[in-house]
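S1.2 Input.
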Amino acid sequence: MTMVRSFVAVNLSDEVRAALARAQDGLRKTGADVRWVYPPNFHLTLVFLGDVDQDKLGEIAAAIHRAVAGIKPFDVEFVGVGGLPRLDRPRVIYVDVKDETGNLAQLNEKIAAAMAAFDVKQEDRKYLPHMTLGRVASPKNLPALMEASKKLAGQSFGLLNVRSVELMISDLRPSGPVYSVAARVEFGVN
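S1.3 Output.
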């Protein structure tokens, strides 16, 4: 049995990815001690699955397909930069994802429920749609990072038309994770 680290996500358009990379570059110039996410790895996580049996990926993809049945394409907007748990003491620097439809939370709930059949540990906190830019490693230059983040508070980094979800595999390497798409599930396809 070969185990693979996996998650279900929405991948970003090139336009949104480029806008987020530009914002990240501006924040990087503060000299803050942050492990920045490599822009090709930007994604919007819906459900983290952890280690799953590689032989079960087809069954997992089929369960995701059933879980998203009835979902129609919808738009989300990437707006502002914040910090989790708070901007004045961040562990994570992120971009907020505005979803007026509530579909991201619905996708999270439906997919998480479908994954229970695969012994996937459920998150015990409420789903918060966000796109991680980086993880704070130390307080070095944190005031400058906070100030630069505040200047981006209301900025829009673009709209994304969400038309599918992807079952992703994460290969953890010393240089950082490498993600690949194991399966794509498009909305409205029977």
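S1.4 Remarks. The radius of gyration is 17 Å.
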